Amino acid sequence: MLGGAGFLGLNLCNRLAQSGAEVTCFSRSHTQAEALDRRVARVTGQFADRLAIANAVERQDIVFHLIAGSIPESSNRDPSAELAAAPIATLHLLEICRSARIKKVVFASSGGAIYGIPRATPIPEQAPTNPISAYGISKLMIEKSFYLYRHLHGIDYQILRIANPYGRFQLGNKHQGLIGSYIHRALANLPLEVWGTGEVVRDFLHIDDVSDAFLAAIPYDGPHKVMNVGSGAGLSVNQIIAELERAFGCDLLPCVHKPSRAADVPANVLDTTLIRSELGWQPRIALREGLISTIAWMRAHLAEASGDGSPLPFIR
Questions:
Q1: Per-residue model confidence as pLDDT tens digits over 135-172
Q2: H helices within the chain, ranges in order?
Q3: Which of 114, 168, 187, 284 is deepest in the core (most CB within 10 A)?
């Protein structure tokens, strides 16, 4: 599991270990090591270190590539650095996987960034890919690298274009993940940051549903190598804030409005018809249920991180 100590990786490592798989978690750091299932082997290294990667994937059957790079907004500050990092390292990874005779590589792509400004929503996999961030271009370059290596060398792969996941292990303190960030700020008594009018629409789903999609992709041997993973429904930022207020049981969460960002598309909702028909997958966790469980996890995490283990006050 490359990038296994991140938000998605921790959840997926644990799910695989619980299902009886032998799992190796490769990451440059293990900041939430206590959250990782004790049966998961941990390896520390850099994605650009070819020897470290070769050692990590040796004797593996499936490789999950979850290394994300930066985030859409910050990637545009230095596009050349973004495009020189993960895509090149992924080419080296694919060469290593070819030598190691890896059976399959599953890649976590971005359903939110790779399509750019859509002509219509929901967005099918066949829609044009015109990213407006270097982050999205990087993901697209990596996707095309998988296609190339299958064409040249027969390497099997599956690409999952993920919408906006939220849930346990999303710390919310690095501007990654709107819902995680908002829950973290609310529990820290900080105002929620709203970029623009709050009418930007996104597709949100719980991390357990994302993990289900990855597990379903492992045995899939059909012709569709790219699939969207989302709820299939869009909610504006303002609607998410209203849902969080209901989940917290409070009348109003304070917000601070900031200028719109160039990397934010006005709407992004994924068409999930393909993955539903090919993998039999569909999201099963309702938003309200997911928000309540995520708030409970974040509250416990922040209380433990505070050092005294005392519960945080309930927001009113």
A1: 999 999 999 999 999 999 999 999 999 999 999 999 98
A2: 7-18, 50-57, 72-75, 79-100, 134-153, 178-187, 207-217, 237-248, 273-279, 287-305
A3: 114
